[in-house]
Amino acid sequence: xxxxxxxxxxxxxxxxxxVVGALVAVSAAFDDGTTPVDYGLIAASSLALAAYxxxxxxxxxxxxxAMTAYVLHAHPGSLAALPVLAxxxxxxxxxxxxxxxxxxxxxxxxxxxxxxxxxxxxxxxxLLVGWFLCALVTGLADRNWQAxxxxxxxxxxxxxxxxxxxxxxxxxxxxxxIARELHDSLTHSISIVKLQAxxxxxxxxxxxxxxxxxxxxxxxxxxxxxxxxRSTLExxxxxxxxxxxxxxxxxxxxxxxxxxxxxTGDERPLTATVDRAAYRIVQEALTNAARHAGSAxxxxxxxxxxxxxxxxxxxxxxxxxxxxxxxxIGLTGMRERVTALGGTLYAAPRTDGGFxxxxxxxxxxxx
Length: 367
Hints:
By secondary structure, the chain is of the alpha+beta class. It contains 10 helices and 5 strands; from the N terminus they run H-H-H-H-H-H-H-H-E-H-E-E-H-E-E. It is about 65% helix and about 10% strand. Strands 1-2-3-5-4 form a 5-stranded mixed β-sheet, with helices on one face. Helix 8 packs parallel to helix 9 (about 270-290). The relative contact order is 0.05.
């Protein structure tokens, strides 16, 4: 059974409390004057350590009072300082340096008055002072180290975000450059062809001649090419979805394609990149189905899981697994989008006929 992080943390804190309490209790067992009250003070201070993450100041206070009372009553050895050392370290670790130093001083003062001889008191108290200074210093060092790790992680995330923004910016600039080149070259040439065909058809009609079918076909094809080119240029300039997968399904139905849409899971807002990828995958899959599947029935499925979105588009057309199609620009672009998000794409003929597109897109926080 896999335990979550919070459970593992609580078990670790409880283990710390039990180990510290066991060490002090074993040490106390060798003292002839230890009473049940002393064991109660040891248990209270040790068990309080289990809550040091949630309330470090309160734990420090409880442990200091309990263990100071214990040393004043039972006059134990230096190991009695262990719970207080742990509490001082954890308090300093979260920034309570002053409170930790005061607590350590209070315990040392109580410990100092319990020695049977001046020389022994000085030696034992001096040793404990060193221990408490180490607890304070290691607590502060750990705090600084954790702060350094957080700053390093933040800088790494910021660097990654900056790289992603720079890549998106360069991609946008490249799309605009391509759009300008297409507009300046193809648009002008097609416009000239359309204009020339229109003039020729007009002159033929004016002379009472029959307009050649080829000329009419050129005029119609050039007009269609202009409309397609404008649509392509608009996509290159924005690369943003102009709707939702549901709207794409409605448009496909209006165009005569038999499409069903199914949405499962907890539907929720997506990040811009995932939303764009899902839209383009459905768009490309429906376009391919309209071109190659004929009158086939198409199903579009959007499955919202906790960590990913699965986009699946299936048709029962004439695609044959024995003759898989060569990946074109559409499938290649679809795969690049999915791979860029760290997802997986399956696009191939189905064993029972037809074609299937399945993309698994990892989900991030909604933007």
